[in-house]
Every structure is written in C-alpha cells, then in structure tokens.
Amino acid sequence: MDFVADSTQSTGLKWSAPASSGSMTLINTGGTTLTGASVNVSSIPSTYQQLYIVVRGYQPATDNATLFMRLNNDSSAHYVATSSVSSSGSFGDTQVEFISADNGTTTMSGFTYIYDYANTTTWKVLSTQAVAPNATTPTNYGQNRLNQYWNQTSAVNRLDFLPSSGNFTAGTVYVYGVN
Amino acid sequence: MSEYIIKSYNCETGEEEIREMTSQEIENHLRTQQEYAKNKELKQKEAELIATKRAELLARLGISEEEARLLLG
Predict the structure, then answer these.
(1) What is the pLDDT of residues A22-34, one digit of tens each?
(2) Could you tell me the end-to-end alpha-carbon distance of chain A, in angstroms, rounded to an integer?
C-alpha cells in the first residue's frame, strides 16, 4: 500500500487501496481432458503473474509412460530438469516432465508453477511436483519433485501435453492464472 | 480413425478442436518419443554401470555400503 493525496482527509493523505492479489482464475474453462496422442491449451492470456497447472488422473495407454509438457510448442533442446538444490550444465531436454504412471489407474496427481510466464526478457522457471501409482506395483508410489527451466524469453501462451509413449487413456489438465 | 489424434483448446475463444495430426506432426511426435526412450535407456545403463563399479570397489575394500557412508560422512 502507498500514501496517496486526498483533500478530504485532515492530513491531505490516505492509504491507497491494496493491489488485488491472491486470485486464481481457471483459464481453460472446465479443464481439458487428456485424450489421443497430444493435447494443447493455446491463446493463454498474459494478464496473470504466474501459471498454475494441475493434472489429475493422468493415465497412459502404455504402462510407465511419462507425462510431458512443452511451452509454446517448442520441441527443441531448450529445457532442463533437475532435482538438485544447486547445479549447472547445458539444456538438453526437449520437454518438461511431470511423472510416469501406471496404465491401469487414475489416481495420479501433480502440478507445475510457471513463474513470471508473461515476461519477454528472461528464461522461465518451472516448479513441478507429482505422485502416481508405480507402474510395476501400483499400490506403491512414484514421485517427482523437479526444478525445470526453459531457456527462451518468449511469454508462454501455449502448453502441449503428450505421453512419452503411446496415447492418453485418461486425465484432466487445469490451467490457472494466478495473481 | 488414426491413433494420432491432437486435441486443442483455445482459451480466447473457448473452442475445442479434435483432429488427426498432420504427417509432420506425427513425425515430430514419434521422434520425441523415440529420443526419450533412447535417453532413458542410456541413463539406466549409466546408473547400472555406476552401481556395478560401486559394488566392485566396496568388495575390493572389504567394507559394506553402510560402512563406506560412515567413513565419508
């Protein structure tokens, strides 16, 4: 909050109204079902601070297939994923990852934040966490907590989802704009 | 219908489109999946090699993995 001029106040000043914050808007109304070989959510408005992407019930047709996501349909080696606290290296991945999953269950759950996705001057930072039934022993879990990065400066306006093998059987993606 | 179906949701218009991938899209899609499978296999082989080397070294030193951890900790 700031002080702003206001002649009706005895001091001539008042506190300004706080900037609106803390809101979350579902951008892809109702969520988008994962089906076929690939699913994309496009024309994402650049009016939010962050993107919060929730995936529920990802189920691949091929056992143990990993859920991938791409930014702006970029399939070049512009991505990297790491679970290290601190590291350095080159960009060699062609997508970001959520998690691999069992092909007989729909209890996978995960999310990714894309910080400052609309800026056009810096690389993008993604924070991902997901859990899914293990493909070999579905009563066991598999989990991922990844720091992922994209070395492009464009605003993110499109997300593509695809499995690392085969097609999607089930799942829903929710893309939220966060302020 | 082809198994290469692409679904698009446009946030601006709210329209959803489901169509078959173009031949170029199928080519890209398959390349992605094949490269990932190849990299995954390489990483797995690398991890197996490291595990084998570690086991060999521990055997040569005559200590367990837990003892090695104690030594380095």
Answers:
(1) 899 999 999 999 9
(2) 16
By three-state DSSP, how is residue B49 classified? helix
A40 and chain B in contact, CB less than 8 A: yes
Nearest CB to A42 within list B3, B11, B29: B11
- Check if B29 contacts A (Cβ < 8 Å): yes
Q: Is the pLDDT of residue A177 over 90?
A: yes
Minimal Cβ distance to A37: which of B3, B14, B35: B3
Q: Which of A131, A128, A124, A179 is nearest to A157 (CA)?
A: A124
Does the distance separating the beta carbons of A45 and B11 come in below 8 Å? Answer: yes
Q: Which residues of B touch A162 (CB under 8 A)?
A: 29, 32
What is the average pLDDT across A103-127? Answer: 96
> Which whole number is the average pLDDT over A136-160?
96
Q: Are B15 and A43 in contact (CB under 8 A)?
A: no
- How far apart (Å, rounded) are the C-alpha atoms in residues A139 and B44? 23
Closest CA relative to residue A114, chosen from A98, A128, A125, A101: A125
Give me A41's structure tokens: 């959510």
